[in-house]
Amino acid sequence: MVKRVVTSIMVSCFLVLGVTALAFGWSLEEAAKPYAGATIRFITETTPPSYWVEEALPEFEKATGIKVIVERQAHPHLEEKALMDFAAGTGIYDVFNFDYSWTGKYVKAGYIEPFDKYINDPKLADPNNDLKDFYPRMWEGTSWDGVPYGYPFDSVIEYLFWNKAIFDKYGVAGPPKTPDEWMDAMAKLNHPPELYGTGMQAKRHLSIVCEWLNVLWAFDGDLYDENYNVLLTNENAIKATEFYKKMAEYAPPGVTTWTWDDVNTALQQGIVAQTIQWDENYGSMEDPEESKVVGQMRYAPVPTARADGKPVSHYGGSSLGIPVSSKNKEAAFLFIQWATSYDVQLRGVGKGSSPTRRSIYQIPELRAKYPSFEATDAAAETTFWRPRIPEWDDMVEVLALELNSVVAGAKDVKEALATSAAKIEEILVKGGYKK
Amino acid sequence: MSSAGFSPYQKFSSWISKTENRFKWALILPTIVLLALITVYPTIYALRLALSDYNLARAAESLKGYIGLANFREILRDVTFWSSLRTTVVFTVVVVAVEFFLGLVIALILQGAVTRSKIVRTLILLPMIMAPIVVGLTWTYLYQSEFGLVTYILRKLHLMSYRTAPLADVRTALPALMIVDIWQWTPFLIMVLLAGLEALPTAPYEAARIDKAPPFLVFRKITLPLLKPVILIVLVLRIMDAIRVFDIVYALTEGGPGEATDVLSMFIYRNSFYLWNIGKASAISFILLYIIMIISVILVNVLSRVKETV
User: Which of A13-22, A178-187, B252-261, B269-278 is the least confident region?
Assistant: First the structure.
């Protein structure tokens, strides 16, 4: 009897140890052995996390023997290069940084790999990688019809960047909570040409559409309802766009040629008191070599007049995926897993990393040092997002032209919205969403 | 003597001429094959694309193949196409006219001793040999809304308000682009017209001097008619180039603000690389090709008639 008990205890011990050994047995070095010597190409956007990953890259190359070539491109050119490669099936790129609004387009075209087969492969997947740690919205953005197509890489959420030192200097209470308070602050903080009330990303570009969407949502508007009825000619859309146009009165000259890059420089130089900007740029505000506003920037949701009181921000994040045409898919997966890991995201904080994992935003020391962390953590749970249907590109084209014309004074708000509504309606009908 | 009438020499020469003909073809063949590969095949392929519904981003589901002239019909109904065509025409007419006028005046001034100076020639050539993207970036900084030198000078001279900037205003963006093109390409006209002026025969000028003809009359009655072939060639080249202008528009404004600088090439680019609508983009390219061809044919015809009269 005693013997049996001892044996069963020993067996259980071995089982426990064995399982533990399996779990702890996974290492990047081991997993990468079959792929050592491979070269993978990573095409990404010229965003802070891309720079950070490139900086940390030697350690991945040393651990795995996999060489990674990083190619950075501005937002539109990233797609230009990648799409050419995918359509021709040449297999130049192995890792692809894609905007969540492109997910549907690439999945439907059959250009990117479903991720479950890699996630479920015990040889490749790190058992300690907690996928539940990614913010749900970001995970959803990476997925299509419930299937993931990558790992969230860049948390990009657009909300208000406001310079507390400037607000204090002019005795303006911040942050503004309602559109009225917001416009009032812009007027009070506008002292050209040294200081302007607001920055704007009003170029005929994706940037103006993203920025304006915040204002549209803040006025309880939207592009279309759940039945694809276009809502751009209603009162809320008109009010929002009139508001957006009026903002230009307190913005620097030339904002009709500005994108997120120009707005960032203006924030860093302290020539705009506040503006809507993407949270991934928080690190550049605190970099003493580039920024004149170190320690001054604060972050808040976009001022809103919504009936439901929901805080407004705009999710624009991106994920790392694997093109179907890639010839080094396993090595690419190992790289993606590493680049989006807790450890790499954590160590890059302040150096460009724009974490997509909730746990990093909870670290008290980081929250104290980077005020954007609290704002991003709050926004990530509630953030609004733009359409993800493949026809989104066509809508951006229409809206960028019409909105830019409004800000440039070439078109009246109602006329621009009516034109946009008619064209978007046509796009939705053509796409088969609306009869 | 069955083969009477043909000497052995004649027979040989007839044989060689046939062979020579074959030999000539053999020599030309590689060039024909190469041309077919690099120009004829892509053109036919582009025509096929222009007649199909081909969207790169939806390749898997939307390659419905042949759709006839639907792309062309869609383009002709598109108001953006017409406005970009109008912008292209305005751009071309203004820049070519100004470049020609400036080029001719400067060429006439520089004619003579100065032209032999290598420094002057190098200075004139400088804008032309710069890479288009460098030109674009340099001018982007000159026109920058906060610290751009041109913007600064315009504001100091009270020619531009502090509320706006050259590339940010729908009224000034196109003229700003025209200035870049004029800056870059006037030297080309100067050089070609100078070469033309220097190659003119001296006899008519000596006759005019003996007759004590006034300079303006000499220019109108001698220089201009003699220079006509050169002028027409340089105009053909510049018009074709200006209609296709892309690089400076892309670098400076990407077609904005609004539709102010949306030229045809930008319209094609937008359709292919923002919207991935390769079918429609190919169709617009064909329309652009026909426009350039028609203008070229007209100008070349005029040129050949002028050559006959000269």
Answer: A13-22
Chain A residues close to B163, C-beta within 8 Å: 253
CA dist., res. A312 & res. A305, Å (int):
10
Are residues A204 and B58, on separate chains, in Cβ contact within 8 Å? no
Q: What is the mean pLDDT of residues A411-426?
A: 96
Task: Answer whether B109's CB lies under 8 Å from B193's CB.
Answer: no
Give the count of Cβ contacts less than 8 A between chain A and B.
Answer: 101
- Least confident range of A156-170, A292-306, B144-158: B144-158
pLDDT of residue A8 exceeding 90, the answer is no
Q: What is the pLDDT of residue B62?
A: 52
Indicate the residue type of B126. L
Question: Is A387:A424 a contact under the CB 8 Å cutoff?
Answer: no
pLDDT digit string, tens, across residues A30-51: 999 999 999 999 999 998 899 9
Q: Chain A residue with minimal CA distance to B258?
A: A405
Looking at chain B, the whole-number percentage of residues with pLDDT higher than 70 is 93
Q: What is the pLDDT of residues A91-128, one digit of tens each?
A: 999 999 999 999 988 998 899 999 999 999 999 999 99
B183 vs A: CB within 8 A: no
Interchain pair B144, A254: CB under 8 A = yes
Q: Which single residue is written with the structure tokens 């043909």? A: B6
Q: B100: how many CB neighbours lie within 10 A of its CB?
A: 17
CA distance A411 to A402: 8
* Residue A225 backbone zone (phi > 0: left; psi -120 to 50: alpha; other: beta): beta
Q: What is the domain partition of chain A in residue ranges?
A: 11-156+316-356, 158-314+388-430
Contacts of A257 in chain B (CB under 8 A): 145, 165, 167-168, 253, 256-257
* Cα A72 off chain centre by: 16
Q: Tell me the β-bridge partners of A44.
A: A72
User: Could you tell me what percent of chain A has a pLDDT over 90?
Assistant: 81
N-terminal to C-terminal alpha carbon distance within chain A = 77
B76 pLDDT higher than 50: yes
Q: In A281-410, which residue ranges form alpha helices assigned H by DSSP?
A: 282-285, 329-339, 342-347, 358-361, 364-369, 372-382, 392-407
Q: Which CATH superfamily is domain A11-156+316-356 in?
A: Periplasmic binding protein-like II (3.40.190.10)
Enumerate chain A positions whose Cβ falls within 8 A of a Cβ in B.
76, 80, 83-84, 87, 105-106, 108-110, 192-193, 203-205, 252-257, 271, 390, 393-394, 396-397, 401, 404-405, 407-411
Burial environment of residue A388 by CB neighbours within 10 A (0 to 12, 13 to 18, 19 or more) = middle
Q: Tell me the two tokens of residue B11.
A: 């027979």
CATH 3.40.190.10 for domain A158-314+388-430, yes or no, is yes
**ipTM confidence:** 0.79
**How much is the pLDDT for B305?**
80
Q: Coil, strand or helix: which one is A272?
A: strand
Q: How far is A389 from chain B (nearest CA, A)?
A: 11
